[in-house]
Amino acid sequence: MKPAPIPDSLREEAESALEEIQPNLNGEILDANQPALLNLFAASPFAARLARAYPDLLESALRDPVAKELELPDPETAEDADFARILRHARAREMLRIMFRDINGLAELPDTLHDLTAFADRAVMGAAHWHRSRMKESSPTDENGEPVPFVVLGMGKLGGTELNFSSDIDLIFTYPDPASDREEAQSYFIRLGQKTIKALDDVTADGFVFRVDMRLRPFGSTGSLALPFSSMEGYYQNHGREWERYALIKARPLGAPTAASTELTDLLRPFIFRRSLDFHVLEELRTMKAKMAHHARQETLEDDLKHGPGGIREAEFILQSAQLIFGGREPVLQQTSWIRALDAMVQCGKLTDGDKQLLFEAYSFLRTVENRLQMVDDQQTHTLPQNETARDRLQFPMGYSDWQEFVDALTMQRVSLQLEFTCLMRVELEAEQEHPEELKALLHAIETVGQQHGDDVADLKQVFEKMGLQDGAEKPAQRLHAIVASTAWRAQNARARHYALSLIPKMIESACRQDASAQVLNLLFDVLETLLRRPDCMALLTENPPALNLLTELTSRSPWVRTQVLESPHLIDELLSPNSLFGERTPEILQKILQLALPDDEDDLEQQMRALRQFRQSQTLQIAACNLVHSKSLSDVSDELTWVAETVTACAWELALQQQLQRHGQPHCTVDGQRRPAHCAVLAYGKFGGLEMGFNSDLDLVFVHDSDGEEQMTDGEKPVYNEYFFTRVAQRFIHIMETMTAYGTLYEIDPRLRPGGQSGQPVCSLHYYEKYLEEKAWTWERQALARARVVTGHDAVRAAFEQVRARVLCVPREPDELQQEFVDMRRRMLDAHPPQSEHFHIKGDPGGITDLEFMVHYNVLLHAGKHPEIIEPTATVMILDRLAQCGLLDTETTEFLRTCYFSYRDRIHVLNLQELPPHSPPDEFADERKKIRELWDETFNLAT
Known about the structure:
Strand content: 5-15%
Number of strands: 15
Helix content: 55-70%
Oligomer: single chain
Largest sheet: 5 strands, mixed
Radius of gyration: 35 Å
């Protein structure tokens, strides 16, 4: 932001400072920068003092306004005092440069914060390097005889690369475990740490560099000044507290990345970011937030930009608490920078773009004001000034000529930030329980199960009824009694028991707001029993009433959802963020989400398989929730389920392919004397190929490659025949997809459409596949091509398959012969699965989906030779549209079949979510069934 005109109250002071230093500045530089220098001196008496003391440094900063590397003196000839002077002069130049650019609107806030942090990094590591080079003691060494590195961990805003202008710097000193004497090593690094602090913190005639705070180290002020990595790890494993995890989010090894700094980061990560959603920390965060809110309400803090209401601390708390809770599951959230963490929150669906914009604008405004306050006199202050001159000094570089105008703008940002803080954190300082007396009775009844001679179930039933459960409390009472009397309940530790006891009354209250509340509560108690093994999930639901209410709604509407949650309790995590739960899903978004979820270690197949399964489960649950709560359309549900399957298939195939490429190299072949690479692809058939996936669909897949000719071998160190290579890729892919793990399987793979069916080879060449389809395939195999498409693989194979598909589908066919083949196929299916009189099988019975699809595919095989455009789409309704466009079906018939197809499939989706077979009452689709049978007879000349 550009400054406003300098107020009259400051102009004389600024002009006096400029006049005093004018003789010491180059005339051209002075003329070019005079207005900006007046702004600088008016806003910052500290800058004016530095300019008077070091006019050469000011001129250097104006002549070459970029950061300078530290030029360290020769440690053999220079003294510590020489180094201290150089360091302080470097600081003076850098502060003048940064203030000049910031106050005059020549740098954005991120640039200013970065430059302040970068200088601190150079100063700290320069001091450590200088003093280490002058130490007379021998350096501790590692097992290779190399000096053990001194690792300085930056904390707080220094670690987050967002240091403010006059900030303390929080440091922790550590080092890899040495091979030499450990006590001597610790003594060595403690002395080095002391010298480093002194070089930065001592006030000399040239001032200081940074005030250093070491209180965040293990055991605080009473702990050792420097610790080896092993002691750091032991401390955080055995003594680390939640606030230390919160603080370590911003921990960053200073200086250029090294093997030692990477080792330290890897060592700390498991303590900071837990793999499962960590809601044990919620109580600590609630306490911290409550203290902040109480503290912020104090009248004396209204002018405090950091700790007051709508202050910087609240903006930081919003993101850091989310990072602490979700960071283990969402690696993208493992950011030290607040600004980068804000972007990451949007990427993983924890914030909307609107939230991001509001938070960034408020945070940027507050941090800019904070810096301008501290630039006045190089003081670590966050409080708005009270006297008029000091207010003028702040308002004009912020771009305001009136104090009230500035305060209004600041208040708007703080109020919006405070509202966002309250909404996003949802912390209730004085939570009021419904039914307080009944709650006491409930807890007493639970705690005394099995300890009294009365009727425990009757006591629970009575409490349930008083809490509003009026439609049959007997079964829920029996269910809860069984849970509380179980071994699993007795095995709970105090924390888990606390969460369970907090969750039970909330479940009762949530169930009472539903129809058939007793039945819903019974279902919730099923979930509770599973969650006894997952206290973190119990904490999530306890702390997040909207998540519990959503779980209640979904559970009451869909046994399928309940089953998914019971089998994979981690899915409860998905209920916490409505933005991601009900957010947009496209192939691009899904691919991005999956890439963020995959582990960094590309060789860790177990973790990759886990990430794939969790991705598929979470996305499928989200789609089901959208369908149940927001009545998402059938087309959208099928599209999204198909896109999820495509994303998983592509990733699993790439994992399998890369593993074999690393082992054996790239397959090649020689065709007509030309050596070329050979590639492979995955073909999808059926519902997957037709973009018509359901919640329980398996995947009909065929694997093909384009290897041909001679010398079909890979080019790696361990060459193998291409056929073997592609077979191993397919087998590895199927292993990734079908292997049962603790997180279940991904998808069942149906191989019946490959040549030879289940007994055929896993992979075949396109050349063989085309010949098989032309000469040996059954009609139903050619029919299946109507919904076949490549879902992943090389583009060359994709294009070649499309040509094969077109040639096979477009072969001219004799209508009478084709009709008979379709009628015979359908008859065999009905003989194998005859209709049941008591219900209508929506897919397989006469008049159902199979009849409809057969008619569509018959028309494709019959007419594709003259109308090749009808084979372009693979979805049934899109094929219907093409048939109508080509005049092969009349509009009325097309619209009927389209409507009927959607109705059938929508009903199957509903039944899937109810965990019911695809059956309907005999009279539900009577008219549709009759009309389809009439069209069947007409299509295949069976009408009498």
